[in-house]
Write a structure and sequence with these properties.
By secondary structure, the protein is mostly helical. The protein has one helix and no strands. The mean pLDDT is 95.
Amino acid sequence: MDNEVLKALSSLLDEKLEPIKNQLNSLEKKVDGVVDQIANLLEFRSDMSEQMKQVKGDVKSIKKDITNVEVITASNWKDIAKLKAVK
């Protein structure tokens, strides 16, 4: 009789634990999905950081070029003023 009671209790326990096991499996899948998303976001962040560094360098280069154009333009205006004065 003790074996029958143990089997019945074991069966009842298995029956009660089944939904908990299913929920645990579902939560594990969700956590795995979140971990994957975090990994993707970290990779994206790293890529964006590199691209921002490159853009920053490009902007500095463009600013330098614009400054050179302004200096050359000023020199040209000076030369034009001299030529007009000679007339």
